[in-house]
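Posting for a labmate who doesn't have an account.
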Amino acid sequence: MTEHARLAAVVTVSDGVARGTRDDASGRALSSLLETAGFEIGRREVVPDDRGDIERVLMGLSQEGLALVVTTGGTGLGPRDVTPEATRAVIDREAPGLAEQMRAAGRDSTPLAALSRGVAGSRAATLILNLPGSEKGAVESLSAVLPILPHALDLLSGDTAHRPAAGDDHRGHAGDRRREDEPGTRVDEELATRRAAGEEVVVATAVKIEGNPPCRLGQKLLLGREGSLAGTLGCAEFDDAAIRDAPAVLQDRHPITRRYTHDLGTIEVFLEPLLRRPLLVVFSATPVALSLVRWAREVGYDPILVEPRIERVTDEHRSVARTTPGLDGLALDSEAAAVHTDHDAPNVVETVATLLRSPVGFVGVMGSARHVGPHLERLRELGFGDEDLARIRTPVGLDIGARSAEEIALSILAGVVAESHGASGGWLDRR
């Protein structure tokens, strides 16, 4: 394991849980087991037994750079059990040994475990495991492979533990394994940092080996527009070739496979661009904020909850969005949007001032003129003029007669989307 907790996600695949008619016992149990094993639960997702929905969630979690994604449910022989098909559609490579070990553990408890069709495999730097839908079966299956997951994730991150055998000396090339033992080269940690900062990156993964090159299957190199960020493909020649290809991959916004050659052999490398979603920065852990961050991803945003009052942040907030106490390190560019959901929160004026000094595309503050007015006056005292203050949407949201927290969140999110498209909102049949 890395020194810091790896990020994991738990995806519950169930029509009943998605409708709210069934308790998500297996999802809770898996989250608890992973946390006990040292993982940080970055996301909890619930999706119905729909292949398209499952594929979309798995691809999104991989793009966010999570090290591990476990699904529970949809692995049987029923007509709605499509989790294995959805998983195979998104992974680059299967890891059949993990799936076999999980089924073998289940058969020790019940012969029905043989009916599970769950698969395991990787997409970019993310390992995806299908677990049964029952709480007991899910926990047994994950427990069976939990001891070997650290090494599996090390390999996927490019931090391979393999070393040359005796007499297998590749040191004739000065760059061979040049970063393998250096600190701070773990791809998953650096990937999470870069994604949080809004950077677009490329993950280069060795997917095929021919001959005996200084590279192992699954080694990874994380690349930005300016060069290498973490990891290695095993030698300077391979790394430099991937560095040359990365800008074009980011420009074209599509993955490619390339062959790189070394005196000792050839590798095939899958270069996948991980492209940035615009940020939706939501301030304060309120009921409105919870719905906003929960739905933001559905309309193409990367939600993040800003709440310096840590005691207000619940597990439910953490299950649907990243959380942070402040704006430091966030990509506040012209595509980003920011919404204050509590006009009485600390530092409203200071954070809005930071937003107005940035090119952020949307700034909203919930509250009536009576409540927000003092904040606007304070901003004027700080030197902001009419043109600056006109950027602030307050009250914020489209007028849909919203009353509940969910309805208010819907009106705000609709307004954010309308603003991003240059639309004013309103009924289509009354234009």
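Reply:
Got it, the structure tokens are right above this. The chain has three domains: 7-156, 187-274, 279-429.
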